[in-house]
Specification:
single chain, alpha+beta, 3 helices, 2 strands, 12% strand
């Protein structure tokens, strides 16, 4: 994965956001380099209606996703 790949992923994701408008995305990656790329993607996605967060800790990612799903959609996520 490199910055060009992230830019391509962002371009594709922005096209998808026009179809799937309201989405929660938690990205978990423990590697510092990959975390930087995930944060770059997160920043690019700020221009969409998606709520995107990058985490270097899996438990934090799952906790955020569960809480936001409950708050935003009223659903309980199990099994993360």
């Amino acid at each position: 994965m490199n910055s060009d790949a992230v830019k391509r992923l962002v371009a594709m994701s922005k096209r998808v956001t026009s179809i799937n408008l309201d989405t929660l995305v938690a990205i978990y990656t423990p590697q510092p380099y990959a975390s930087g790329l995930a944060r770059m993607w997160e920043i690019f996605m700020d221009a969409t209606d998606w709520e995107t967060r990058a985490f270097s800790d899996r438990v934090e990612a799952a906790t955020w996703l569960r809480k936001r799903a409950k708050d935003k959609y009223g659903i309980d996520i199990v099994g993360l």
